[in-house]
Design brief:
The chain is mainly alpha-helical. The chain has 9 helices and no strands. Helix 4 packs antiparallel against helix 5.
């Protein structure tokens, strides 16, 4: 569904409707976030902001640091990348990282570093972005979360290349190509079966 935003939007809207009827705060909170993500994929940023603010209200009421960290990550990305408010985006991204650390949510911490790195890249703060990308890559590998690894490796090699460090760029490029080829090979194997 993620590759088909209109279907994802409808699925998330259905989940939100069910969550409202069930009056289940955790389910409701996640449904707001998923629907907001679908709206963002469709370029409906103001609607996404309204949904994420509803999720934030639930987070503040329930005081769950891990859920608040995820919600703040979405808000940070929305403000920084789509609503042209980098200061607000940075605040939410840094707060999300802090909350993930406090909740000892290793997976979330890895994703928050990645999101914060993309923010710093957009701000042309390459040194900080490279630190966060390297940290996110190591954390993802430690917990065996490889979903974002190709994107992180690609950002690392392109940023090092842009910064005039061909040795590091080549190092990350070869890792990126190796992983990409492995993913393509694995997909082909699954298709054969």
């Amino acid at each position: 569904l993620l590759s088909r935003p209109p279907e994802a939007e409808q699925y998330a809207q259905d989940a939100l409707d069910i969550a409202r009827k069930a009056e289940a705060p955790d389910f409701l909170l996640r449904s707001y976030r998923h629907l907001a993500a679908a709206k963002m994929d469709l370029g409906k940023y103001e609607v996404a902001l309204t949904l994420l603010k509803e999720a934030e209200r639930i987070c503040l009421r329930t005081k769950k640091k891990d859920e608040t960290a995820y919600t703040y990550r979405y808000l940070g990305e929305l403000y920084a990348l789509h609503l042209n408010n980098p200061a607000e985006g940075k605040w939410y991204l840094e707060k999300s990282k802090q909350l993930a650390e406090e909740a000892k949510d290793t997976e979330a911490y890895h994703l928050h570093n990645y999101s914060l790195a993309t923010y710093h890249l957009r701000q042309k703060e390459y040194s900080r972005a490279l630190q966060l990308l390297t940290l996110s890559l190591a954390q993802g590998r430690r917990i065996r979360d490889r979903v974002y690894e190709p994107e992180i490796l690609e950002l690392l090699y392109k940023t090092y290349e842009q910064q005039g460090n061909p040795r590091q760029a080549f190092n990350y490029y070869t890792q990126y190509i190796g992983l990409r080829d492995s993913i393509v090979s694995d997909a082909a194997q699954l298709k054969i079966k």
